[in-house]
Specification:
single chain, alpha/beta, 15 helices, 47% helix
Length: 311
């Protein structure tokens, strides 16, 4: 069975000859070729140059022999044409200079047309598909509404999500207006990626594990669900971290594949989800373990029939 078939068949819960492997962050500092490119370009510069972004997307496919490529982009990228002043500060990560704090800030967010306003991403997808020439499928992705909202409100990364939850609890109308705008934009963005050639798409809800099940159901689930309902052409993957108490709610929101992070045993996480594939749940720091320990952990994951990615 070819790698081109293996990954997509696993997403659909069809038989495969082995468990396919890909990593959440396939391109990164461990690759000398990537470090050389980062000496010339910032992250946003790479994303704005389709030829460079395509090259970075392909580097781990050639170096590692993984079963799928994942688009090189950033989850915050679509916020820029909406009017957000985004910077990646050295040593700090993303910084948003005009955070969302009021209903007027939400109103000021511009609607976008992803095919035009994020044309560089679409061109990267087309270039990667051409270069892959069917070797492996290409995964597109976007950040989920809650995760993007948290960056927008906090002005960057957060350890407590205090400002996010304050807005959510104190100004629910403003919160729902923001989430509605983000869901509409993200559905359009992922559909545009599919039209450009993405063969599966993933919704990253990196910070949603900071919510209780009740808050997730009230403030988040309807918006993630809106996005998944807009997609019916390719397999969809729904990923979050620290989501052991949210998994069934995430499944209700949507996704052909549900991500299980390293804190959740595959069997324990999969059992209540029903007719769905799962991905994960290798601890990323296991990559620093002795090779025999790492091999044992990987072998344990591969005995299951979801698909395997780094969580």
């Amino acid at each position: 069975m070819s790698s081109a078939e293996r990954f997509l068949r696993a997403c659909r819960r069809e038989p495969t000859d082995c468990t396919p492997v890909w990593f959440m962050r396939q391109a990164g500092r461990y690759l000398p070729e990537y470090r050389a490119i980062r000496q010339k370009y910032s992250l946003l510069d790479i994303c704005a140059r389709p030829e460079v972004a395509a090259q970075v997307t392909l580097q781990p496919v050639d170096a590692l022999g993984v079963d799928a490529a994942i688009l090189f982009a950033d989850i915050l990228l679509p916020l820029i044409p909406m009017g957000i002043d985004l910077e990646f500060a050295a040593g700090e990560g993303p910084v948003i200079h005009n955070p969302i704090r009021t209903s007027n800030d939400v109103t000021a967010l511009r609607p976008i047309h992803a095919r035009d306003d994020l044309a560089s991403v679409m061109q990267t997808i087309r270039l990667v598909r051409r270069e892959l020439n069917g070797r492996v499928p290409l995964i597109g992705f976007a950040g989920a509404p809650f995760t993007l909202a948290s960056y927008l409100i906090e002005g960057g990364a957060s350890r407590t999500f205090l400002k996010t939850k304050q807005l959510m609890y104190r100004e629910p109308q403003t919160w729902h207006a923001l989430m509605g705008k983000l869901a509409e934009m993200l559905a359009d963005y992922l559909c545009a990626q599919i039209a450009a050639g993405a063969q599966a798409v993933q919704l990253f809800d990196s910070w949603v594990g900071w919510l209780s099940p009740d808050d997730y159901a009230t403030y988040v689930q309807p918006y993630s669900q809106r996005i998944f309902r807009a997609i019916d052409d390719v397999p969809t993957i729904h990923f979050g971290t620290d989501t052991a108490t949210l998994l069934t709610l995430m499944r209700e929101a949507g996704g052909d594949v549900i991500g299980l992070d390293w804190r959740v045993p595959l069997d324990h996480g999969w059992q209540p989800l029903g007719d769905v594939a799962v991905q994960g749940n290798l601890d990323p720091l296991a990559l620093f373990a002795p090779r025999d320990v790492l091999a044992s952990k990987v072998s344990d994951k591969a005995t299951h029939h979801g698909h395997l990615g780094e969580s």
